[in-house]
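Supplementary notes for students who missed Thursday's class. We covered one full example, reproduced here. Read the sequence, then the structure, then the short commentary at the end.
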Amino acid sequence: MNTKKEVKERYKILLISVNNLWRYSNVGIDQIAGYLRKKGFCVDILYHHKNLYVDEVIKSIDLSYDFYGFSINSSNYKCCSELSDYIKRYNKKAMIVFGGGYPTRYYREIFDSCHSVDCIILGDGEIPMENLLNHTLFDDYITFYNNLVFPNEYEGKYPYCNDFIDYYPAWDYFESDRFSRNRRKEYCLQTKNNVCTGKCTFCTERKGTIVYKDISHIVTEIDTVYRRFGIKKFFFTDDNILDPNNSEAKVRINKLCDEIQKLGHNLVFKCYIKANSLHDNSEDNALLQKMSSTGFKTIFVGIEAGNAADLKLYNKLTTVEENYTILRLLKKYEIAPQIGFINFNPYSTVNTIKENYYFLVDIEMDNLFMYVYSYLRVYKYTAMYQKIIKDNLALPGESYLDDKSIYRFIDPKIQEIFDFISEYMLPRVRNLDFEFDWLYSFFLECKKINPDAAMYTQEFNKLKREQLKKLKDYFYILFVENDINKAKSLVEDFLLFFEHLQPQFAKLHRGLLELYIN
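Structure (token representation):
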């Protein structure tokens, strides 16, 4: 009789990550693989981080595995569903499982459209997947049955929230690559379990009780990854690294910075915070100064709006003044703020987009995307989705399962402005390779890694001034004067200005990259 250990070792598991972002691994896949291997399972990982073309991914699929686990999001769902159909066609006995935030929300719709999937894991996948495997191999009782969805078994299901997070992920993505390429990658990790304490009406994130990861564990992981793979940039993917915005959370990040500094490595960090996470007082100023000196050079803030009406609509629980304050503080400590911003929503008025415009100008927003590619994404099952259904603003035929879904605008003038942007601007802006504020963030990171990057300061300042003037003048016509005919007559020259900057941005990026990796 085979032992459990032998059965586990013979049962072949393949976890699959498909996307087009080579600089990042896949935190969810890596965590699950690390956990399952610790439990004695034989787990391989297939990373296809090049594109989403199913024909290319198929070439690298081995059909001899017993179990296939897919990490699903809105972008790769179509590709992964076709891959699962392909696997099932040639390996009918294989178990195919989907997991991730997207199938957690939309498992009903996925089972309706993809019949090759055997099970969908809701929420964190480590323990429910272990339980599913033990049931499959040893007929164990499925303790976490309510977190596993099978075809036509939808009742009483809810996401699993992991409160055991102090274990290391698999590092296959870096172990299989060259040291020179790894130095250009960003390593993603979290300081707590994957929950959000916000109450935004458009939010699809999971709610729950915060469980923090031990600081010594975080710092050891950073140290190990830097020493083994040469990675210099670390991305804390918590929705808010200062959650829940209290003094204890700030003390914790203070301690994290102290422990990182003790390592003696020259590193940079990126994280998310909320607009009301920090205020202009002595305690928060000291914390930001320490974070900056530690290497936090890019912080993403969910600003979302520059007017009170939209902030109330989104239930952001912040004020316009708090939005101004946090951005001013970040710049004070030479931290590049990257913001989430929503210029258009179904309830926008000429006044709200005008106030948003003045806010963007006041904060010297130099990213073209914030003016053009900033409309509210409405997702199914959210509070905002229920509102547009109630108000008859949802467009027929839209699925609201991804970020491309659109709606009717209440104000005809806003509809006209948005239609102009969609037709004349969005396609070309989407094709730009470089965003200026992303490049500027990289510049600040490079200066921390290699002070020689300061040679580009004057060039960045000049580019920023030129872009700000162009953005301010053009969007005044559109968002303040609401003169679409005038905007249409000038749009070609306006877009050409940004397109012609792309070679200069590319050259800047190459120069910074050389300083960053050497």
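Commentary. The longest helix spans residues 484-517. The radius of gyration is 24 Å. If anything here is unclear, bring it to office hours.
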